[in-house]
Amino acid sequence: MNETLIDATGIEVTYGNGIKVLHGVDVSICRGETVGIVGESGSGKTTLGRALLRLVDVSAGSIRFDGRDITRLPEGEMRPLRRRIQMIFQDPMASLNPRHTIRRILSEPLKLHGLAKTAAETEARVAKMLERVSLPAVCLDRNPHELSGGQRQRVGIARAALLEPDFVLADEIVSGLDVSTQAQVLKLLKGLSADLGLSMAFISHDLSVIRAVCDRVYVMRFGKIEEEGACAEVFANPRSAYTRLLLDAIPLPEITPGWLDSKAGVEDAA
Amino acid sequence: MTAPLLSIENLNAISTRENGAPILRDVSLTLERGEVLGLVGESGAGKSTIAKALLGILPRTVQVTGGAIRFEGRDLMTMPSRALRDLIGTHIALIPQDPQTALNPGRRIEAQLTDALRLRRGLSSKEARARALKLLQEVHIRDPERVLRAYPHELSGGMRQRVLIASAFALEPKLVVADEPTTALDVTVQKQILRLIRDMQRTHGTAVIFVTHDLGVVAQICDSVTLLYAGKVIEAGRTADVLTAPRHAYTKALLAAGPRYDRPDSGLEPVPPSVFEALRAEIGLG
């Protein structure tokens, strides 16, 4: 687990209006490792994910993927790498073509990237993945809107995993789901990344969810890394006051006398 | 013995769209004055339907087929619509889920806060403005003069939610229905808003129905909790009892399914299919 797959250093991203949203961020992700990126709205976590995938341009810093500098790689040269870098989106309804059947949604990328030679092979791979993500075969002939939110998220996961990527970026993928569905999706993702030896960046605003699936965590604030470390360490002994603040703000499902009144350094009102 | 503030008795409702599919199944609950009750459940459990029924804003696709909602002993279901509107308008208020959409984007905060004070309380514009200022101070808005002049888009999500809380408590209602008021907020802001609702509730002696899917929120703010599944009450009781000694297997499984930052390997135990099967059999679903 110590071979570095993604190594980003000094990442800065400036949007068109001149506003800098990332101020020199360092992130590294090893093979087989799941890394959490957590922060409140506006912390820059989503922009960081997009920068790692080269979906937004960086204004400074460098990104290496599997030893190769991809910081300014032209799109033509990025394309062969795209299969190896996949993304699972927050809202599967918006990321799955509503007019296509699940069969088509899952088979097309396989054909596109030349991963399956024949129709029969495509069909077989899709069927196998469908079983792996515990979706019934009848789903294949349905459209996204005919599935539940949890099922759609499984389709998103299956589509990413079918391409046998090295790296998967998952951005807030369980935030709209019920607790029981969320646990199913997290369990599936954790199992799948172990089976396939995936590296994963798991972006979430929810520290509890990060704890469930990640080995290591980056806590972001104002476009910088506030704290980084193994989950076991950071969650038990946060070094940064901000991380402590975030943890203290999470209500645990057990009566915690005085919790609501503990200010934990929160500036009240604006 | 006086009647409880609110008692819902065997409330049943169906969807007129989906062939009369039941939405609420014999729901009963009681709420005392000044009590905070958590209404919990996953999506489709019926918690929002109950909230809407209390506020008289059920969509046309939902039809109540039986039962009573008694507010201080009077049944809302059989009340003439004019009297019902007056009762709800004066005594029951809503803190909505989404502070983005709940305020009129084209009107200043002052207009939105003072409407009810003028129309329902008969205050003059000047009196209403003074009262609105006081309310904004009470929800810890530092520059209430500026906020009164502001349009909603000029305020942050947390600020808008404070304005909506001020608005909910403006007429000194006896019951506030808080419909997932913190789901759209960052966790640090959520804590401030929860504290604010609790403080306002205590200061004014208001009863609150807190609709949420988060058992953590329930633990920290609710005196009692009612857990729903598919429109049926699965478990109800004092929060401490339900969380420490849940009686129903579904409650136990839900508690186990939630991720916790203080426990490694939590959040990875889905509710077992057998629990859902038993639950559906119990409710009488296929």
CATH topology of the largest domain in chain B: Rossmann fold
> Strand sequence of the main sheet of chain B, in spatial order?
6-7-8-3-9-10
Q: What's the CATH first level of the largest domain in chain B? A: Alpha Beta
Series of secondary-structure elements of chain B, N-terminal to C-terminal = EEEHEEHEHHHHEHEHEEHHH
Mean pLDDT of chain B: 94
Give the overall form of chain B: globular
- The third-level CATH topology of the domain at 1-84 and 199-270 in chain A is Rossmann fold
What's the total helix number of chain A?
10
Query: What fraction, in percent, of the residue positions of chain B are helical?
Result: 40-55%
Distance between the termini of chain B: 42 Å
Low-confidence stretches of chain A: 265-270
Shape of chain A: globular
Strand content of chain A: 15-25%
Count the E strands of chain B: 10
What low-confidence regions of chain B span 5 or more consecutive residues with pLDDT below 50? none
How many helices of chain B in DSSP terms? 11
Gyration radius of chain A, to the nearest Å?
19 Å
- Can you say what the CATH homologous superfamily of the largest domain in chain B is? P-loop containing nucleotide triphosphate hydrolases
Give the oligomeric state of the chains in this entry, treating copies of one chain as homo and distinct chains as hetero. heterodimer
> Ends of chain A: how far apart?
45 Å
CATH class of the domain at 1-84 and 199-270 in chain A: Alpha Beta
